[in-house]
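Quick entry between incubations.
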Amino acid sequence: GAGVSQTPSNKVTEKGKYVELRCDPISGHTALYWYRQSLGQGPEFLIYFQGTGAADDSGLPNDRFFAVRPEGSVSTLKIQRTERGDSAVYLCASSLDTLSTDTQYFGPGTRLTVL
Amino acid sequence: TQLLEQSPQFLSIQEGENLTVYCNSSSVFSSLQWYRQEPGEGPVLLVTVVTGGEVKKLKRLTFQFGDARKDSSLHITAAQPGDTGLYLCAGARNSGYALNFGKGTSLLVTP
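Done. Structure below.
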């Protein structure tokens, strides 16, 4: 079956612009996660959804970052007034549920470059 | 905050050698996972360990979870060029959701 897909694969934008990053999880997976991976680092948790609601957004760095999952499937990560420090690979993952042993399946990521 | 410390950060070895990668923390985890990540791709799960002292084998890879569930190791026997990649450990502190990742160990195996 299809895995987690993310679009676009690459996004180049200018400082101050608004960007949207999309994630299509595996069908039937109730949990969806966003992570950010900077160069030379491991992924850093941003937010996770259980169904349509954001169950934990404690990893969002500031109020310029926002994410939605209106129908409990596709999710969009939105970044306002982008800054150069936002440049990173944004990874999305989904899992069947939220047990600690549930496998999180990752998408290939969106590489965001802010000039 | 990086709760998990991985070592070494970089490792370059020749085909056929053995190696061990370590993942340490002062925190207790309900489970710990090892991932491998290729350039331009997302991490792919290799194994999940749950019980303190647990040892799991996956072909030439052996994973161990510390008795106190604070640390883990990954041992590769007779490394092959196909093992090249970034190895990440990740711990789940609560019942599910957010994974705390280490910085990763970048492994290069040359023929």
